[in-house]
Structure formats: C-alpha cells, structure tokens
Amino acid sequence: MDRANNQKDSAADKRVGDRPPGVVLDLRWLILTLVVLSVLATLGNSLITAYRVQRDALVEHALQSNSAYAAKVASSLSEFIRSAQSHLHYGAVELGKEWGNAKELRAEAMRLQKQDADFNSIAIVDVDARVLEAYPDTLQIIGSRLHSDAVQNAIEARRPFISPAYKSAAGNLVVFVSEPIYDSSNRYVGIIGGSIYLQQDNALHTLISRHFYHTGTFAFVADQDRHLLYHPEASRIGETLGWSKTVDAALRGESGSMEVPNYKGIPMLAGYAQVPGAGWAVVAQQPREVSLAPLKTLMDNVILGMVPAALIGFVLMWWGALLICRPLHQLSSIAGQLSAPQATEKLHHVKAWYREAFSIRQAMLTSVQLLQAKIGRLNQQAFTDPLTGLANRRAMDEELLGLEQAGRTYSVLSLDIDHFKKVNDTFGHDKGDLAIKQVAATLASYSRTGDLACRAGGEEFLLILPDTDLDSANLIAERIRQAIATSDIPGVGRITASIGVATCAQAPTPADVVLKQADECLYRAKQSGRNRVESCLASTLQSAGPE
Question: For the GGDEF domain, which residue ranges apply (predicted)?
C-alpha cells in the first residue's frame, strides 16, 4: 500500500512539475502585442516628429514672410515719404521765389494737393504760424494762427519735418509733413506742409492695401510716440500702443521677426521694420493658429489615411504571428516527450519553414539521437580507467569521433614509458603501477580545459588537444616529457617517456589516420633514442629532444 501511495505522489509531483510557475503567456499573443506596440510607438513617434517638423517649418516660413512683408511695406512708405518731401521741397523753392504773391501761393497749394494726392490738404504758414494759404477751401483756416505743437515744432525746426499724429485745428487726426521756405534773399519766411488725414482715405491706406496679404496677416504702422497711424481696424487709428516688443524693436531701427502675444494675449507671428526717413514702426503679423491651420488639416488627413492600412496591417500581423508560432508551439509540445519512442517521428512532422525553427528541430532530433545512443552505451561500458582515473579507450574514441564529425582542428599526443618492462622486472608490478599513476598525474596536470587525457593500455597514454596546432602541441609535449624525466618515483627513481605528436589540420581526416600518424611519430622517437618528441603533419617531420 505504501508503494502504491508513493507511486501516486510521484505521479502528482510530475504533473505539478510539468506546469510552468506563475502566469504563462502564449507566444502568439506576446509576438502580436510586441509588434502592435512597436508599430504604434513607431507611428506615434513618426506622427509627432512630422508634426513638430512641419509646425516649425510653417512657423519659420510665416515669420520670414511677415518679416519680408514688413520690410516691403516700410520700404514703400519710405519711398512715399521721400517722394512727398521731394514734392514739398520743390514747392518750397518755387514759393521762395514768389513769396508775398498771394496768387502764386494759392496756385502752388492747389498744384501740390492735386498732383499726386499724397496729402489730404496743403497749408502755407509764415514764421508766426499764420496760415497764408490752404487748400482745399473747406478748411476755412486762411488768416488764422495755428497753435498745435506739430506746426510750432515744424516752424522751429527750419528743416524737413514729419510730425507725430495729432488733432488738427479742424478736428482731424493728421500727420503733418513740412518743408522750410526761404525767400530769394535766403531769409527764412515760413513752411509749406501737407497733412495726411489718418481717419480718412489717404495715401497710407492706399499704399499699404496694395500689398499682398497672407490669410489672416495684417500690418499696422505706429509713429515715434507709439500712435497708430494705420491699422485694419479703423477704430484703433490714433490709439497709443502699450508695451510691444516688435514696435519697440522697430523704433530702435531693428528689423526681423519674433513670436509675441498681441494685446489680447493671442500668440502672433510678427515681422517688423522701421520706415527710413520717418522713424515709424511697421509690424506685419499673423495669428499662430491661422499659420498652423493647414498643418491640422494635413495631420487629420494623414491619420485618416492610415486607418485602413493599419487595420490591414493588424490582420496580417495576426496571421503572421500564428504562422511563426505554429512550429515553435509544436516543438514545445514535443520537448517534454523526448524520451518517448515516437518523439523522432513527431519531430519529423513539424513544418519548420524558417531557420530558427529548423535549427531547434534539428537540435532536438540530434538530442534525441544522442540521448538514446548514450543511454545504450552507458549501460554497457564505463569511460574511466580504474588504475589512473584517466579516460579509457572508449572515451578516447568518442572524443575523436566528435572532433571528426565537427570538422575541428586537433592534435594527438601518443606517449609511451621508455623501458617499462625493465621497471616491472626490476622493481615489481606494484612499482610499475606507481610509475603509470605518476605519469598519468603528470599528463593530467598539463591538460588544459577541454583536453582529454587517456590511458590507451599498458604503459601507453594519449592526450587529445582540441583546437591546437602542431607548434602548440609540440610545446605541450616537450613540457610533459621534461616533467616526466625530472620527476622522482619513490622506489624507482627517474624514468623517461617518448612522445609522438600528430595534428589534424584539415577536415575531413579520419581519426584513425591521425592516431596512426601519432603512433608512427612515437615509433620514430623510440628509434631515435627514446626520451624524445617526434611530430608530424602530412609529410612534414619535426623532432625535439634533449640536447
């Protein structure tokens, strides 16, 4: 009964041992999950990278465009101011020649106002700020004295002058551009000035509106006192601006672009420049959101276009995962039954269609064959020499067979104790066995990891050196020979040994051929006086011994 219980416990333990501990995930799900996560991560990273690159490109393009736009507007305004001042200068020269001639004053005022429509009105003022002539007549200011700071500053300047925005005597928000008048005696007699009405249709409006606008882009102009001279929102013209990085930079004479919030806190992509000759600031800007609107549409289209491809890709990945995992799943099922008689047949039925699965199947087939072969051999033979503890002839044969099948380079040392029969006859078999053991110990001590020291029989030994060329094998053999020759054996004294070395450097070479070469080299060592090392590779013969 105890025996039956033990058998049940053993079976139960086996069933428990067959189950992997913890949560076991299916390889198909692992592969699919890994692939899906990798694809999603790659696509996500690609989309994010593409979005950032396109965003930065759009922002940079908008900044450069707005900077160029502001510079173009500033250049146009500068040309306009230069042209207007040139017209006024010509008029001032002509008036200086006819100063005091009321008819000429009126004719020149009319000509300047109508010539290019640069100004909404023209006024000729003497040094006492009294209006001598004005056009159009609707102003009704002839004979009156002007008290505005702009006119007073223009008179005092005695040079070309451009005023900040101010309220005129007629109640208009204007910019006053003037030129000094000198009579024929070069006496300063007054100024001629043109007014630009900022809140009416004027040359500034016409000039700026001619320029091309990007979607959502607009420009505004401010004077040195930060008064708005032009703005698309007419109600803001004349407004005094608060702190503005772009306006401040332009008023300092700088030009460029930057991203700044507007007075409502909306991020804007702005370009700025100064109007040469007038000192005004021109700012062209566009809401950042408007600049990036095409990017949102583009990314939406890209994502929508990816959905069908992603669905098809997931289906293909699922099918591929099943196809890849099927042979591995079959092999894993067979792995726990390698000792079964039908294991080899089952392995042959696995369709290992890719290299890794094929390699695993071949390895499992080899394992099954080796396992079954080793079990059979181990039941019949032992691999250790009982006297020396070295490998015996069978172990040697298996090692050589493995090296031969693997096609590896190896060397064989064939060692024989010199005059061993004399040792036995003189000192007895016990001392002979002691000599054999000491030689075996010396051989083992000079064996490296992976080498195999064997007792081939009687006083003959073999040392198999895998992956060792002939020169290295000769060095090892000579060390062993010297160690044996210089060692004392209790009750015997010193003995010597002869060694033959053969190297298998080219595959395939049968192991028995290599052994035969080693034996022939050993025979040469014996014939040459013993206590020597003789080696051979193909038809080459080398020797080493005491000098």
Answer: 408-538
Q: Are 364 and 434 found together in one domain?
A: no
Integer Cα distance of 545 and 523 in angstroms: 14
Whether the CB-CB separation of 135 and 113 falls below 8 Å is answered with: yes
Handedness of CA 503, 506, 507, 512 (dihedral sign): negative
User: What string of DSSP letters covers 123-144?
Assistant: EEEETTSBEEEEESGGG--TT-
User: How far out from the chain centre does Cα 477 lie?
Assistant: 56
| DSSP conformation class of 234 | G
Distance, CA of 394 to CA of 123 (rounded, Å): 128
Three-class secondary structure of residue 287 per DSSP: strand
Distance CA 444, CA 226 (A): 100
- Joined together, the tokens standing for residue 276 give 């040469």
Contact 71, 255 (CB under 8 A): yes
- Partners of 500 in the beta sheet? 414, 534
Residue 119 within any structural domain of the chain? yes
Q: Which residue has the higher pLDDT, 523 or 225?
A: 523
Domain presence at residue 193 = yes
Mean pLDDT is lowest, of 161-165, 305-309, 422-426, for: 305-309
Distance CA(343)–CA(114), nearest Å, equals 110
Q: How confident is the model at residue 17 (pLDDT cuts 50, 70, 90)?
A: very low
The CA-based angle 290-293-298, given to 5 degrees, is 165
Count the domains in the chain: 3
DSSP secondary structure of 173-220: EEEEEEEEEE-TT--EEEEEEEEEETTSS-HHHHHHHTS---TT-EEE
Q: Are residues 368 and 398 in the same domain?
A: no
Q: Please write the tens of the pLDDT for every residue from 434-491.
A: 999 999 999 999 999 999 999 998 999 999 999 999 999 999 999 999 999 999 999 9
| Residue type at position 422 | K
Most confident residue range from 205-214, 285-294, 357-366: 285-294
CA nearest neighbour of 188 among 99, 60, 294, 314:
99
Domain hosting 367: range is: 304-375
DSSP run (H or E) holding 456: strand 452-457
Task: Give me the pLDDT at residue 210, please.
Answer: 65
Domain boundary among 318, 350, 375: 375
Q: List the catalytic residues.
A: 459
Percent of the chain with pLDDT over 70: 89
